[in-house]
Write a structure and sequence with these properties.
- By secondary structure, the protein is mostly helical.
- 70% of the residues lie in helices and 2% in strands.
- A two-stranded antiparallel sheet has the order 1-2.
- A hairpin with a 2-residue loop joins strand 1 and strand 2.
- About 10% of the residues have low confidence.
Length: 243
């Protein structure tokens, strides 16, 4: 319970701290400095690599993966795990979109120029105009980062009791980090947008997983599960951890 509370409270404190910091001169200066440092390493090869990596956190990829995984778990009567995937990933995505419109932070801006007006990245035959291709209107928080964090944190929770937990956790850390860096590299987000996305995705999934363990949700879950399997005429399968 204490670890779960920390997994919710600490990321939320980080998120709130970033909300306050991005409006200060120090926060703005840090964002611009870090953004330019990351983009100083642009090369034609990295342009393509980062374009591929950033799409791992796109809404179609994250939503599609979540629906596929959640649907398969439900099909195999792992209802609790299926609900964790659908609610954890889907809820995080909705929360990210809503908060973008709450804060309405304008697109990346350096020296009074919008992202679409910035000098082009290092020329790449495959993707010559990456900033325009990956341009976003509101940037805080980064929804790519929210989505990829939620998806892979759910994967870690689902495999935590298995021998696969450390390989999955390592892969999750790697992909979540790379997608976040790619958003800054491509000029789509400030670093604080990415940090906020990591914090929000973590807080949401931990809170949702903890809520699923509450007695009220467990009672509702058992009723839904009973109705589903009674209608199918088969035995009720027991979930390993989520019901």
């Amino acid at each position: 319970m204490i670890r779960a509370a920390l997994g919710i409270v600490l990321p939320l404190l980080v998120f709130l701290g970033l909300v306050l910091w991005i409006g200060t001169p120090g926060g703005v200066a840090w964002d611009r400095t870090m953004l330019m440092r990351v983009q100083a390493h642009q090369t034609p090869v990295l342009n393509v690599v980062m374009a591929v990596l950033t799409n791992l956190g796109s809404a179609p990829v994250v939503t599609g993966t979540g629906l596929l995984l959640g649907g398969e778990l439900l099909r195999f009567r792992q209802v609790g795990e299926g609900m964790l995937v659908l609610g954890g990933v889907g809820g995080a995505g909705v929360m990210g979109v809503l908060l973008k419109h709450v804060f309405q932070r304008p697109e990346v801006n350096l020296g009074g120029l919008s992202a679409g007006q910035l000098p082009p990245l290092v020329e790449s035959p495959a993707l010559p105009s990456l900033r325009l291709l990956f341009r976003v209107v509101y940037t805080f928080p980064s929804n790519h980062t929210v989505g990829i964090t939620a998806l892979w944190l759910v994967a870690v929770l689902l495999t935590w009791s298995s021998p696969w937990r450390w390989p999955v956790a390592g892969l999750a850390l790697l992909l979540v980090s790379l997608v976040g860096v790619s958003r800054v590299y491509l000029g789509a987000h400030y670093p604080t947008d990415v940090l906020a996305g990591w914090a929000l995705g973590t807080a949401w999934v931990v809170a949702f997983a903890q809520a699923m363990r509450s007695s009220a949700v467990q009672r509702l879950y058992r009723k839904i599960k009973g109705l589903i399997f009674r209608r199918e005429g088969g035995p009720q399968a027991k979930d390993r951890r989520w019901g």
